[in-house]
């Protein structure tokens, strides 16, 4: 028998007409959050949690009960991932020129910080291996990053056209972080993306 706790308790029922709380990896334990079925006297099942995460019913969940619960609880909801992808593509398509498009794609795909991309030099890229290095980045640490093969080919062509540039995206002095922010803002505005 599962005891239903009061509203101030961490345990309680989901409600049919209200959004679910964030699904966690231990949703099958009633004491871990408000994951009791709205009507049945039990926690929600793995499949019910997967539905809340917008994972399709025909998606095959593999592993032990605990491993599957971790996969479901750690998942980005399918609909959220799809919507983010759609907006990112809109952002890329709305960039003003090839250089801006490359900057946006490199920022998005590599995980580089704006302050790192403005200081990136062509000799810090190994485009044959689809990788690059940030030297003395955050915390004065060096780190490696990866680039998709498709983006590496585009960057290679861009560098070949600008062999006399000291920086990847500027000739003599690095762009400012504000320059990049303006590129992102312009593309977002043109794409109709309005996020606060």
Helical region count?
7
Can you count the beta strands?
Answer: 3
Main sheet? 3 strands, antiparallel
User: How does the overall form come out from the CA principal axes?
Assistant: elongated
Distance between the ends: 45 Å
Average the pLDDT over all residues and give the rounded result. Answer: 89
Order of helices and strands: HHHHHEEEHH
* Percent helix: 40-55%
Strand-residue proportion: 5-15%
Unreliable residue stretches: 1-10
Secondary structural class: mainly alpha
Strand order of the largest sheet: 1-2-3
- The radius of gyration is 23 Å
Q: Would you give an account of this structure?
A:
This protein has helices spanning 46-52, 65-74, 78-93, 98-110, 114-118, 149-161, 177-191; strands at 125-126, 131-134, 143-146. With 196 residues, it is mostly helical. Strands 1-2-3 form a 3-stranded antiparallel β-sheet, with no helix packed on it. The relative contact order is 0.10.
SSE arrangement:
Elements: H1 46-52, H2 65-74, H3 78-93, H4 98-110, H5 114-118, E1 125-126, E2 131-134, E3 143-146, H6 149-161, H7 177-191
Antiparallel strand pairs: 1-2, 2-3
Helix pairs in contact: 3-4, 3-7, 4-6
């Amino acid at each position: 028998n599962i005891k239903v706790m009061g509203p101030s308790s961490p345990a309680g029922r989901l409600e049919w007409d209200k959004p679910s709380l964030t699904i966690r990896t231990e949703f099958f334990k009633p004491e871990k959050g408000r994951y009791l079925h709205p009507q049945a006297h039990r926690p929600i099942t793995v499949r019910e949690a997967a539905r809340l995460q917008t994972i399709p019913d025909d998606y095959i969940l593999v592993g032990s009960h605990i491993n599957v619960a971790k996969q479901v609880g750690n998942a980005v909801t399918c609909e959220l991932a799809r919507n983010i992808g759609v907006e990112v593509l809109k952002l890329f398509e709305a960039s003003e020129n090839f250089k801006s498009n490359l900057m946006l794609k490199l920022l998005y795909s590599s995980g580089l910080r704006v302050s790192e991309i403005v200081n990136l030099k062509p000799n810090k890229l190994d485009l044959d291996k689809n990788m690059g290095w940030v030297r003395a980045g955050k915390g004065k640490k060096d780190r490696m990053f990866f680039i998709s093969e498709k983006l590496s080919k585009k960057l290679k062509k861009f560098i070949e056209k600008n062999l006399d540039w000291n920086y990847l995206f500027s000739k003599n002095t690095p762009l400012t972080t504000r320059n990049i922010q303006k590129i992102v803002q312009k593309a977002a505005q043109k794409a109709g993306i309005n996020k606060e």
